[in-house]
Fold each of these.
Amino acid sequence: MPATIIGRSADVSFGIPNSQTGMIIQSNSAAASSDAVELKNKDGDITSVVFRNKKVTYSVEGAFTTFSGAVGTAVAVSNGSKFGLSGSSFINEVTRTKSADDFERVSFTAVVYDANTPFS
C-alpha cells in the first residue's frame, strides 16, 4: 500500500499503488515507444516523419507467491500509464529467480499494443 504523503509534496506518488495477482510487487515501470519512418529530401534533410507501431512495455518485478502468467497470454493492465493507448496487452517474457539468500522472485514484461492493430 502506498504511503500517505504529508506536506507540500502531496502531488507526488510514493510506493506502488497497483497490485498484481501472484506476486508482491517490488518495482514496476512503463515505457512508450514507436517506429519512426522519416522522409528526407535530396539534401538529406528530414521533411516528414510518421510514428507507427506504437506500444507500451511494462516491466514488473516482485516476490513470487502464485504467479502463473505465461508468454503469449493476455494480461490486464490496470491503473498503469498506457500513454494514450487502449489496445490489448500480452505477456512477452517471464523470469523466475531463486537464490540462497533472497526470496524467490518473478518478473515479467507485457506489451500494450495500439488499438489500431488488427488483433486488438
Note: The mean pLDDT is 84.
Amino acid sequence: MRSVRIPSRASPPSPEAVGTARGIRYNQPELKNRFAGTAAALLVAGAFLPAPGQERPGRTAEIYDLRHFTHPNFTRIVVDVGTLREYAPMESRGPGRIMVDIFQARLNPIVREETIPARSDYISAVRIVQKSETTVRVTVDVDFSRVRRYEVFHVLDPFRIVIDIYPKSREEPPPPAARRPQPAQPAQPADQGYSMARQLGLGVRTIVIDPGHGGADPGCLDAANLYEKDLALDICLRLRELIRANTRLSVILTRETDILVPLENRTVIANQRRADLFISVHINAFPDTKRHGLETFFLNFSTDAAVNALAARENATTTKTIGEMDKIIRKIVQNSKIIESRELARRIQESLVRRLSLGNRDIVDLGTKGGPFWTLIGCPTIPSVLVEVSHISNAMEAQRLKSEVYRQQIARGIYEGLLAYVQSLGKG
C-alpha cells in the first residue's frame, strides 16, 4: 500500500470508508464506531501505512520513552516518538495482545523494554522491541475477557502514540517481580585493598556507555564546527563494537543518534537494566588553549579549581534546583562505590595513555581525579567514570580528533582499560 503525503488539514472520510480501506478489525462490536473515528484521524494524518518490510526509505526517528498511567477507569500507554511517523495498530486473541508497529523508527536503549502497569489486573505487561531494522513494535499483553474496549491514536507537537485500554472490572495490583541472584566468585584486591564488591566476588555483565551531550546540546566545539557530541558518539559506537566483538559482556548506549538525553536521565538506563559499570565519554575544553591531554574522573568532591570549573560546564544543562542540594550532597557523601570507581578510572586512564602514546609522543597524562559530575551522581551503587579523551580547545588534539584512526585508538584504549578492570575482579 502506498503512503501519502501528510496534509496540514483535510476533511476525514467516513468511518465506513476508513474501515473498508484499512481492513480494520475491532476487538469489541461496540468499539467499531469509536475506533473507526480513530482510523479516520490516521487517514487525515497521512497514516496510510506500507506493508511491513516495505517502509519508505529515509532517516529513522528515535523513540526515547515509553510511559504508562493507570487511572481509576482506564490505563493509558504513551510512546514518545518526537518525529511524525506512520504506525499500524493490530491485535491478537490467542494470546491476548494489542500491538502497534511504528515504521522508520529506532528504539533508544534508554527505554525500558518491559514494564508492568500497577493496579491493572487486565494488563500483564507492556513491551517495546526493535522488530526489524526500521520498525519498532509495542505489545500490550491483555486479558480481553476483562477489557471493555481500547483505542489507539496519536497526538502532535511532539508526536506521540497513545493506547487507552478500558477495563470491565476494577484494577488490582500485580504480584511483585522476582530478583535474580548475583554470582559470587573469588577476586583480587584493588590498589586500596578488597572493596565490598571484591569481598563478595561480584563481577560485570552489563556495561552502559554514555556519549556526552547530543541534540540541541553540542557540548564543546571548535572554530571549524567540530562538535563534542558527534565525536563522543562516534567513539562510543566504536567502543561498543569492540566490546561486542571480543567479549560476552552486554553493552548499552544511552543514545545511538544525535538526540538530547537530559543529564538526569543518562543513568536511568543503568539503574533500570541493573548495569554493573557506567562510562561517560566526553571531549574537554579549557580557556588555556595550550592545555592538552587525557583525564578520567570518578564521583567525589574536589578542591581543584580546574576540576570544579569543568564540572560546572558539564552540569550546566541539569534542571535541578538549589533546594535539592542537600539531597544531592548526601548522594555523593554516601557514595558506596568510590573505591571501585577510582580503580576503574585508573585502569582506563593508564590504558588510554598507553594506547595513544604508541603513535603520538606528546600525549599528556592528566591523571584520575574526583569530581562532582551530575552524570555520575545518578549511579550511586555501581562503578562509574567520566573520561575526557582529548581537548577540542587545543588545535593539535582537535586536528587529531578528526582522524578515524585516532578515534579508534581512543575507543581501544578505553576498551582495554575496562577489560583490565573486569579481569582484576577475577571474572575475565
Note: The two ends are 51 Å apart (CA to CA).
Amino acid sequence: MSERLLKLILTILAIVGVALAGCGKTPTKPKPGGPEPTWATYTTLNSGLVNDYVYAVAIDAQGNKWFGTYNGVSKFDGTNWTTYKTSNSGLANNQVYAIAVDASGNKWFGTYYGGVSKFDGTNWITYNTSNSGLPDNGVLAIAIDAQDNKWFAAEFSGVSRFDGTNWTTYNTSNSGLVSNFVMAIAVDASGKKWFGTSDGVSEFDGTSWTTYDTLNSGLAENHVPAIAIDASGNKWFGSRLAGVSKFDGTSWAVYDTSNSGLADNYVDAIAIDASGNKWFGIMGAGVSKFDGTNWITYNWTTSGLVTNDVAAIAIDASGNKWFGTHGGVSKFHE
C-alpha cells in the first residue's frame, strides 16, 4: 500500500471517528467542586500534526510536545506546529517509534530502520549501523539514565548503551538479556534498567542480570511492550494478551479484564501522573485509569478520545494527558 493511499484511508477513518464520537456521547463527569474535564484532539485535518498514526509522545523542559508519527516528527508549542521529515531536516527516517529528551534538551528519535537521530534544536546527528556501535537500525524504545547514558532497544539485536563516546551492546550471546527483541526500557530510582522483551522482562543492575517470565514469576505474559515505574518503586508491565502485571520487588499482582476494570488485555502504553494514578493505553479499547482502587475507562464513545487505539501517553507539567493514537493526538485535562 502506498503512503498516499494509507494517508487517505487514515484521514477518512479520522473523519468518521470524530463524527461518530460526538453522537450519543456521555460526558466525562467532573470532579466534585471542580471544573468539568475537557478534551482536545489534534489531527491532520485541524492542526499541523504531520500524520495521524502517532507512535511516540515526549515533552521537553519548555513544555513543547513532540510526536513521533508514521511520517515524521511534529513539535507543538501550544500554538505553533513544526514538522521535521527527511525532506526538510536531518531525521534519518520518517517512521519514528521512540522519543526521549536528555538533560541538555537534546531530542533523540528512534526510527524504523534509519537508526537514531539526535537533534539539539539546530543540528542533527544520526547514529546507525554504518557509523556507530548501534547493532540494528530499527529502534523501538529509548531511555536515559541518571548518568546521561542513552539506552536503545535495537529491535532484533538487543540493547545498546551510548555514553556519548562509546557503545556497548547487550544481547543473548554476551549477557543475561532474555531476548534480543526488546520493546520497552525503564530505569528505576536505584539505576537498574528494566527491559520488556518478547520472552519476559530482564533486570540489569550494571553487573548482574535477572529475568522474570511466566515460569519463574507472577508475570502474566512474556510479551512486554510497556513498562512504567511509580514513586514507590513498583514496576508495571503491559502485555499483549494478559493485561498488566505489577511487581513490588517481592510480590506480583495481575490486573486484567476478568478481575479489574481494565478495558482490554492489550496494554501498549503506561504512564503515571503526579497523584500516582496509572494510565494504560490500550489497543482497541481506549485508556483505563487506575487510582489504586477505582477504574475509569475513556474511549471514543464515552469521551473526547479520538480513537480507541492508544499507542503512547505523556503527561505534562500541568497534568494534561497527551494520548498518541492511530487517529491523531488527544489531550485530556481532568
Note: DSSP finds one helix and 28 strands in the chain.
